Write a sequence for this structure.
Protein backbone atom coordinates (compact mmCIF):
# COMPACT_ATOMS: atom_id res chain seq x y z
CA UNK A 1 0.00 0.00 0.00
CA UNK A 2 1.51 3.30 -1.06
CA UNK A 3 0.64 6.94 -0.40
CA UNK A 4 1.63 10.09 -2.23
CA UNK A 5 3.64 12.51 -0.22
CA UNK A 6 4.30 16.07 -1.33
CA UNK A 7 7.96 16.99 -0.98
CA UNK A 8 8.50 19.74 1.54
CA UNK A 9 11.49 21.41 3.04
CA UNK A 10 12.22 19.95 6.47
CA UNK A 11 11.17 22.24 9.26
CA UNK A 12 13.91 23.18 11.71
CA UNK A 13 13.80 21.16 14.89
CA UNK A 14 12.84 23.35 17.84
CA UNK A 15 14.96 23.42 20.96
CA UNK A 16 14.34 20.43 23.22
CA UNK A 17 14.81 17.66 20.67
CA UNK A 18 11.28 17.47 19.20
CA UNK A 19 10.49 17.85 15.53
CA UNK A 20 10.91 15.62 12.45
CA UNK A 21 14.35 14.30 13.42
CA UNK A 22 13.29 13.29 16.90
CA UNK A 23 9.95 11.96 15.63
CA UNK A 24 11.80 9.89 13.02
CA UNK A 25 14.09 8.39 15.67
CA UNK A 26 11.11 7.63 17.90
CA UNK A 27 9.34 6.03 14.96
CA UNK A 28 12.34 3.82 14.22
CA UNK A 29 12.54 2.73 17.86
CA UNK A 30 8.82 1.94 18.00
CA UNK A 31 9.04 0.04 14.72
CA UNK A 32 11.95 -1.99 16.07
CA UNK A 33 9.97 -2.74 19.22
CA UNK A 34 6.94 -3.85 17.19
CA UNK A 35 9.07 -6.17 15.03
CA UNK A 36 10.43 -7.80 18.19
CA UNK A 37 7.20 -7.79 20.17
CA UNK A 38 7.12 -11.59 20.44
CA UNK A 39 10.61 -11.52 21.94
CA UNK A 40 10.19 -8.57 24.31
CA UNK A 41 6.44 -8.47 24.95
CA UNK A 42 6.43 -10.82 27.95
CA UNK A 43 9.67 -9.35 29.30
CA UNK A 44 7.97 -5.95 29.40
CA UNK A 45 4.88 -7.57 30.92
CA UNK A 46 7.03 -9.20 33.63
CA UNK A 47 8.54 -5.82 34.49
CA UNK A 48 5.11 -4.22 34.73
CA UNK A 49 3.79 -7.05 36.92
CA UNK A 50 6.76 -6.68 39.28
CA UNK A 51 6.26 -2.91 39.52
CA UNK A 52 2.51 -3.22 40.13
CA UNK A 53 2.82 -5.85 42.85
CA UNK A 54 5.70 -3.96 44.45
CA UNK A 55 3.36 -0.94 44.73
CA UNK A 56 0.33 -2.96 45.88
CA UNK A 57 2.34 -4.82 48.56
CA UNK A 58 4.09 -1.63 49.79
CA UNK A 59 7.43 -2.98 48.66
CA UNK A 60 7.14 -6.41 50.34
CA UNK A 61 7.51 -8.16 46.98
CA UNK A 62 11.06 -6.83 46.58
CA UNK A 63 12.27 -7.48 50.11
CA UNK A 64 15.52 -9.51 49.95
CA UNK A 65 14.03 -12.43 51.88
CA UNK A 66 11.00 -12.58 49.58
CA UNK A 67 13.11 -12.43 46.41
CA UNK A 68 15.20 -15.33 47.70
CA UNK A 69 12.06 -17.31 48.52
CA UNK A 70 10.67 -16.50 45.09
CA UNK A 71 13.70 -18.18 43.50
CA UNK A 72 13.51 -21.23 45.76
CA UNK A 73 9.74 -21.66 45.37
CA UNK A 74 9.76 -21.54 41.58
CA UNK A 75 13.06 -23.23 40.73
CA UNK A 76 11.57 -26.65 39.97
CA UNK A 77 8.85 -25.16 37.74
CA UNK A 78 11.52 -23.24 35.81
CA UNK A 79 13.56 -26.44 35.36
CA UNK A 80 10.48 -28.22 34.01
CA UNK A 81 9.64 -25.23 31.78
CA UNK A 82 13.01 -25.49 30.02
CA UNK A 83 12.37 -29.09 29.05
CA UNK A 84 8.72 -28.45 28.23
CA UNK A 85 9.68 -25.60 25.92
CA UNK A 86 11.80 -28.00 23.86
CA UNK A 87 8.95 -30.51 23.75
CA UNK A 88 6.47 -27.86 22.58
CA UNK A 89 8.88 -26.44 20.00
CA UNK A 90 9.15 -29.97 18.58
CA UNK A 91 5.34 -30.01 18.21
CA UNK A 92 4.51 -32.30 21.16
CA UNK A 93 3.27 -32.13 24.73
CA UNK A 94 4.23 -33.93 27.96
CA UNK A 95 1.60 -34.45 30.66
CA UNK A 96 3.67 -36.84 32.76
CA UNK A 97 6.29 -34.50 34.22
CA UNK A 98 4.39 -33.67 37.41
CA UNK A 99 3.91 -37.34 38.28
CA UNK A 100 7.51 -38.13 37.30
CA UNK A 101 8.79 -35.46 39.70
CA UNK A 102 6.79 -37.06 42.51
CA UNK A 103 8.07 -40.52 41.59
CA UNK A 104 11.65 -39.25 41.55
CA UNK A 105 11.27 -37.79 45.03
CA UNK A 106 9.80 -41.08 46.26
CA UNK A 107 12.62 -43.05 44.62
CA UNK A 108 15.23 -40.80 46.23
CA UNK A 109 13.57 -41.17 49.65
CA UNK A 110 13.48 -44.95 49.41
CA UNK A 111 17.16 -45.04 48.43
CA UNK A 112 18.49 -42.62 51.05
CA UNK A 113 16.10 -43.00 53.98
CA UNK A 114 15.16 -46.67 53.84
CA UNK A 115 18.29 -48.20 52.28
CA UNK A 116 21.00 -45.77 53.42
CA UNK A 117 22.36 -45.02 49.93
CA UNK A 118 24.64 -41.98 49.90
CA UNK A 119 22.95 -38.92 48.44
CA UNK A 120 25.36 -38.40 45.48
CA UNK A 121 24.76 -41.99 44.34
CA UNK A 122 21.01 -41.58 44.85
CA UNK A 123 21.06 -38.35 42.83
CA UNK A 124 22.78 -40.06 39.89
CA UNK A 125 20.42 -43.06 40.06
CA UNK A 126 17.39 -40.75 40.07
CA UNK A 127 18.63 -38.90 36.98
CA UNK A 128 19.26 -42.22 35.23
CA UNK A 129 15.77 -43.35 36.16
CA UNK A 130 14.33 -40.12 34.75
CA UNK A 131 16.30 -40.64 31.53
CA UNK A 132 14.95 -44.20 31.26
CA UNK A 133 11.37 -43.02 31.79
CA UNK A 134 11.77 -40.30 29.17
CA UNK A 135 13.42 -42.74 26.77
CA UNK A 136 10.52 -45.22 27.01
CA UNK A 137 7.98 -42.49 26.33
CA UNK A 138 10.14 -41.05 23.55
CA UNK A 139 10.43 -44.46 21.88
CA UNK A 140 6.66 -44.98 21.94
CA UNK A 141 6.08 -41.52 20.46
CA UNK A 142 8.92 -41.35 17.94
CA UNK A 143 9.23 -44.91 16.66
CA UNK A 144 5.78 -46.42 17.25
CA UNK A 145 3.91 -43.26 16.27
CA UNK A 146 1.62 -43.08 19.32
CA UNK A 147 0.52 -39.48 19.94
CA UNK A 148 2.46 -37.75 22.71
CA UNK A 149 -0.77 -36.71 24.44
CA UNK A 150 -1.82 -40.35 24.89
CA UNK A 151 1.64 -41.66 25.88
CA UNK A 152 2.30 -38.96 28.46
CA UNK A 153 -1.25 -39.12 29.82
CA UNK A 154 -0.63 -42.80 30.46
CA UNK A 155 2.73 -41.89 31.99
CA UNK A 156 1.04 -39.38 34.28
CA UNK A 157 -1.24 -42.12 35.67
CA UNK A 158 1.54 -44.71 35.78
CA UNK A 159 4.10 -42.63 37.68
CA UNK A 160 1.48 -41.31 40.11
CA UNK A 161 0.46 -44.87 40.90
CA UNK A 162 4.08 -46.00 41.30
CA UNK A 163 4.65 -43.09 43.71
CA UNK A 164 1.76 -44.29 45.86
CA UNK A 165 3.15 -47.83 45.79
CA UNK A 166 6.68 -46.77 46.78
CA UNK A 167 5.56 -44.52 49.62
CA UNK A 168 2.56 -46.66 50.63
CA UNK A 169 0.51 -43.49 50.83
CA UNK A 170 2.78 -41.90 53.45
CA UNK A 171 5.30 -39.07 53.56
CA UNK A 172 8.91 -40.25 53.82
CA UNK A 173 11.88 -38.22 55.09
CA UNK A 174 14.06 -36.47 56.11
CA UNK A 175 16.76 -36.40 53.44
CA UNK A 176 20.54 -36.21 54.07
CA UNK A 177 21.93 -32.71 54.60
CA UNK A 178 23.82 -32.74 51.28
CA UNK A 179 20.65 -33.38 49.31
CA UNK A 180 18.68 -30.82 51.31
CA UNK A 181 21.09 -28.11 50.18
CA UNK A 182 20.02 -28.68 46.57
CA UNK A 183 16.62 -27.22 47.41
CA UNK A 184 17.38 -24.94 50.36
CA UNK A 185 21.14 -24.28 50.41
CA UNK A 186 23.08 -21.10 49.64
CA UNK A 187 26.61 -20.46 48.45
CA UNK A 188 29.08 -20.08 51.36
CA UNK A 189 30.27 -16.69 52.59
CA UNK A 190 33.83 -15.77 51.63
CA UNK A 191 36.05 -12.72 52.06
CA UNK A 192 35.80 -9.79 54.49
CA UNK A 193 32.62 -8.64 56.20
CA UNK A 194 30.96 -6.11 53.88
CA UNK A 195 27.34 -6.55 55.07
CA UNK A 196 26.75 -8.20 51.69
CA UNK A 197 27.37 -11.70 50.38
CA UNK A 198 30.69 -11.18 48.58
CA UNK A 199 30.47 -14.24 46.34
CA UNK A 200 27.03 -13.16 45.12
CA UNK A 201 28.35 -9.68 44.29
CA UNK A 202 31.21 -11.23 42.33
CA UNK A 203 28.86 -13.54 40.42
CA UNK A 204 26.61 -10.58 39.62
CA UNK A 205 29.50 -8.58 38.16
CA UNK A 206 30.65 -11.57 36.11
CA UNK A 207 27.11 -12.08 34.81
CA UNK A 208 26.79 -8.41 33.83
CA UNK A 209 30.10 -8.57 31.94
CA UNK A 210 29.01 -11.78 30.19
CA UNK A 211 25.63 -10.34 29.19
CA UNK A 212 27.16 -7.13 27.79
CA UNK A 213 29.79 -9.12 25.85
CA UNK A 214 27.19 -11.55 24.48
CA UNK A 215 24.80 -8.79 23.39
CA UNK A 216 27.52 -6.87 21.52
CA UNK A 217 28.86 -10.11 20.02
CA UNK A 218 25.42 -11.16 18.75
CA UNK A 219 24.77 -7.71 17.33
CA UNK A 220 28.12 -7.66 15.52
CA UNK A 221 27.54 -11.12 14.04
CA UNK A 222 24.07 -10.12 12.83
CA UNK A 223 25.52 -7.05 11.15
CA UNK A 224 28.26 -9.15 9.48
CA UNK A 225 25.58 -11.32 7.87
CA UNK A 226 23.50 -8.25 6.91
CA UNK A 227 20.68 -9.27 9.26
CA UNK A 228 18.26 -6.79 10.78
CA UNK A 229 19.32 -5.48 14.19
CA UNK A 230 17.70 -3.20 16.73
CA UNK A 231 18.27 0.54 16.29
CA UNK A 232 21.28 1.67 18.31
CA UNK A 233 19.32 3.62 20.92
CA UNK A 234 16.80 0.81 21.38
CA UNK A 235 19.68 -1.67 21.69
CA UNK A 236 21.36 0.48 24.35
CA UNK A 237 18.03 0.87 26.15
CA UNK A 238 17.61 -2.91 26.17
CA UNK A 239 21.18 -3.41 27.40
CA UNK A 240 20.73 -0.83 30.17
CA UNK A 241 17.51 -2.51 31.32
CA UNK A 242 19.21 -5.93 31.42
CA UNK A 243 22.18 -4.64 33.41
CA UNK A 244 19.91 -2.74 35.82
CA UNK A 245 17.74 -5.84 36.40
CA UNK A 246 20.75 -8.07 37.08
CA UNK A 247 22.26 -5.45 39.41
CA UNK A 248 19.04 -5.07 41.41
CA UNK A 249 18.58 -8.84 41.80
CA UNK A 250 22.24 -9.25 42.75
CA UNK A 251 22.03 -6.61 45.48
CA UNK A 252 18.78 -8.05 46.84
CA UNK A 253 20.21 -11.58 47.05
CA UNK A 254 23.54 -10.34 48.43
CA UNK A 255 21.80 -8.47 51.23
CA UNK A 256 20.08 -11.65 52.49
CA UNK A 257 21.79 -15.07 52.48
CA UNK A 258 23.38 -14.87 49.05
CA UNK A 259 22.84 -16.97 45.94
CA UNK A 260 20.73 -20.14 46.33
CA UNK A 261 22.52 -23.24 45.04
CA UNK A 262 19.53 -24.13 42.90
CA UNK A 263 19.87 -20.75 41.14
CA UNK A 264 23.37 -21.76 40.04
CA UNK A 265 21.95 -25.04 38.71
CA UNK A 266 19.21 -23.13 36.91
CA UNK A 267 21.73 -20.66 35.45
CA UNK A 268 23.86 -23.50 34.06
CA UNK A 269 20.76 -25.04 32.46
CA UNK A 270 19.67 -21.75 30.89
CA UNK A 271 23.12 -21.06 29.41
CA UNK A 272 23.60 -24.63 28.22
CA UNK A 273 20.18 -25.14 26.67
CA UNK A 274 20.16 -21.62 25.28
CA UNK A 275 23.41 -22.35 23.45
CA UNK A 276 22.08 -25.67 22.12
CA UNK A 277 18.89 -24.11 20.79
CA UNK A 278 20.68 -21.12 19.23
CA UNK A 279 23.87 -22.63 17.86
CA UNK A 280 23.84 -26.43 17.86
CA UNK A 281 22.57 -28.56 14.98
CA UNK A 282 20.34 -30.51 17.35
CA UNK A 283 18.57 -27.32 18.41
CA UNK A 284 17.97 -26.28 14.80
CA UNK A 285 16.54 -29.71 14.08
CA UNK A 286 14.07 -29.32 16.96
CA UNK A 287 12.84 -26.05 15.45
CA UNK A 288 12.72 -27.68 12.00
CA UNK A 289 10.53 -30.64 12.93
CA UNK A 290 8.20 -28.44 14.95
CA UNK A 291 7.94 -25.76 12.29
CA UNK A 292 7.50 -27.96 9.21
CA UNK A 293 7.90 -31.71 9.66
CA UNK A 294 7.59 -32.73 5.96
CA UNK A 295 10.17 -30.13 4.92
CA UNK A 296 12.48 -31.22 7.74
CA UNK A 297 12.29 -34.85 6.57
CA UNK A 298 13.08 -33.82 3.00
CA UNK A 299 16.07 -31.87 4.32
CA UNK A 300 17.50 -34.99 5.94
CA UNK A 301 16.52 -34.28 9.54
CA UNK A 302 16.18 -37.52 11.51
CA UNK A 303 12.91 -36.53 13.11
CA UNK A 304 12.39 -39.76 15.06
CA UNK A 305 15.82 -39.56 16.65
CA UNK A 306 15.34 -35.90 17.56
CA UNK A 307 11.91 -36.57 19.09
CA UNK A 308 13.30 -39.50 21.07
CA UNK A 309 16.07 -37.38 22.59
CA UNK A 310 13.71 -34.48 23.32
CA UNK A 311 11.59 -36.73 25.55
CA UNK A 312 14.65 -38.39 27.07
CA UNK A 313 15.88 -34.92 27.99
CA UNK A 314 12.48 -34.05 29.44
CA UNK A 315 12.69 -37.12 31.66
CA UNK A 316 16.10 -36.08 33.02
CA UNK A 317 14.91 -32.54 33.78
CA UNK A 318 11.74 -33.87 35.42
CA UNK A 319 13.91 -36.08 37.64
CA UNK A 320 16.10 -33.10 38.53
CA UNK A 321 13.02 -31.03 39.36
CA UNK A 322 11.76 -33.90 41.51
CA UNK A 323 15.00 -33.95 43.48
CA UNK A 324 14.84 -30.17 43.98
CA UNK A 325 11.24 -30.14 45.22
CA UNK A 326 11.82 -33.14 47.50
CA UNK A 327 14.96 -31.52 48.91
CA UNK A 328 13.10 -28.26 49.52
CA UNK A 329 10.27 -30.04 51.37
CA UNK A 330 12.82 -32.37 53.05
CA UNK A 331 10.41 -35.24 52.41
CA UNK A 332 8.82 -37.24 49.61
CA UNK A 333 5.04 -37.00 49.42
CA UNK A 334 2.48 -38.92 47.31
CA UNK A 335 0.84 -35.56 46.52
CA UNK A 336 4.02 -33.85 45.32
CA UNK A 337 4.11 -32.53 41.76
CA UNK A 338 0.36 -32.06 41.40
CA UNK A 339 -0.35 -29.71 38.46
CA UNK A 340 3.37 -29.16 37.84
CA UNK A 341 2.86 -30.20 34.22
CA UNK A 342 0.21 -27.51 33.78
CA UNK A 343 2.49 -24.88 35.33
CA UNK A 344 5.34 -25.88 33.00
CA UNK A 345 3.08 -25.85 29.93
CA UNK A 346 1.61 -22.48 30.92
CA UNK A 347 5.11 -21.06 31.48
CA UNK A 348 6.12 -22.14 27.97
CA UNK A 349 3.11 -20.61 26.27
CA UNK A 350 3.26 -17.40 28.30
CA UNK A 351 6.97 -17.24 27.40
CA UNK A 352 6.28 -17.24 23.67
CA UNK A 353 5.89 -20.86 22.57
CA UNK A 354 3.49 -21.49 19.70
CA UNK A 355 0.68 -24.06 19.79
CA UNK A 356 1.73 -25.28 16.35
CA UNK A 357 5.39 -25.77 17.34
CA UNK A 358 8.58 -24.40 15.85
CA UNK A 359 8.59 -21.20 17.94
CA UNK A 360 9.99 -20.47 21.40
CA UNK A 361 13.18 -19.85 23.36
CA UNK A 362 14.68 -21.14 26.60
CA UNK A 363 14.79 -17.60 27.99
CA UNK A 364 11.12 -17.22 27.08
CA UNK A 365 10.28 -20.28 29.20
CA UNK A 366 12.11 -18.71 32.15
CA UNK A 367 10.28 -15.41 31.67
CA UNK A 368 6.93 -17.21 31.48
CA UNK A 369 7.72 -19.14 34.66
CA UNK A 370 8.72 -15.94 36.44
CA UNK A 371 5.47 -14.27 35.36
CA UNK A 372 3.49 -17.07 37.00
CA UNK A 373 5.82 -17.10 40.01
CA UNK A 374 5.49 -13.36 40.62
CA UNK A 375 1.72 -13.59 40.19
CA UNK A 376 1.54 -16.41 42.76
CA UNK A 377 3.85 -14.68 45.21
CA UNK A 378 2.25 -11.27 44.84
CA UNK A 379 -1.28 -12.60 45.26
CA UNK A 380 -0.22 -14.56 48.35
CA UNK A 381 1.23 -11.38 49.85
CA UNK A 382 -2.08 -9.65 49.13
CA UNK A 383 -4.00 -12.57 50.69
CA UNK A 384 -5.89 -13.29 47.47
CA UNK A 385 -7.83 -16.55 47.71
CA UNK A 386 -6.68 -19.61 45.79
CA UNK A 387 -9.93 -19.54 43.79
CA UNK A 388 -9.19 -16.09 42.39
CA UNK A 389 -5.54 -16.98 41.91
CA UNK A 390 -6.57 -19.77 39.55
CA UNK A 391 -8.86 -17.39 37.66
CA UNK A 392 -6.12 -14.78 37.22
CA UNK A 393 -3.50 -17.32 36.09
CA UNK A 394 -6.00 -18.80 33.62
CA UNK A 395 -6.65 -15.35 32.18
CA UNK A 396 -2.90 -14.72 31.93
CA UNK A 397 -2.47 -17.93 29.91
CA UNK A 398 -5.43 -17.03 27.69
CA UNK A 399 -4.01 -13.58 27.01
CA UNK A 400 -0.59 -15.03 26.15
CA UNK A 401 -2.01 -17.55 23.66
CA UNK A 402 -4.33 -14.91 22.23
CA UNK A 403 -1.32 -12.64 21.72
CA UNK A 404 0.45 -15.46 19.87
CA UNK A 405 -2.53 -15.96 17.54
CA UNK A 406 -2.85 -12.20 16.92
CA UNK A 407 0.87 -11.86 16.25
CA UNK A 408 0.85 -14.72 13.70
CA UNK A 409 -2.19 -13.27 11.91
CA UNK A 410 -0.53 -9.87 11.79
CA UNK A 411 2.67 -11.40 10.42
CA UNK A 412 0.72 -13.33 7.82
CA UNK A 413 -1.12 -10.24 6.64
Amino acid sequence: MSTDVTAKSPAPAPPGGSGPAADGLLGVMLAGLRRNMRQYGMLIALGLIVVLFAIWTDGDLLLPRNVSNLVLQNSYILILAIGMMLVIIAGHIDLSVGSLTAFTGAFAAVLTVQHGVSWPVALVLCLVMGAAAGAVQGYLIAYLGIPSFIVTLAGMLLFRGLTEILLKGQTLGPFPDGLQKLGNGFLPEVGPNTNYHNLTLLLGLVLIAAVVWQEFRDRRRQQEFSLEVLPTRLFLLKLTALVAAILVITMLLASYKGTPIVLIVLGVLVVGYGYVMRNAVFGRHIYAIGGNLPAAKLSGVKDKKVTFYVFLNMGVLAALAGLVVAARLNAASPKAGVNFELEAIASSFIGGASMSGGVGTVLGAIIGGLVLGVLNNGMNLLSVGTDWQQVIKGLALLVAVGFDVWNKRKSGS
In short: Confidence is low (pLDDT under 50) at residues 1-22. The first helix runs from residue 20 to 35.
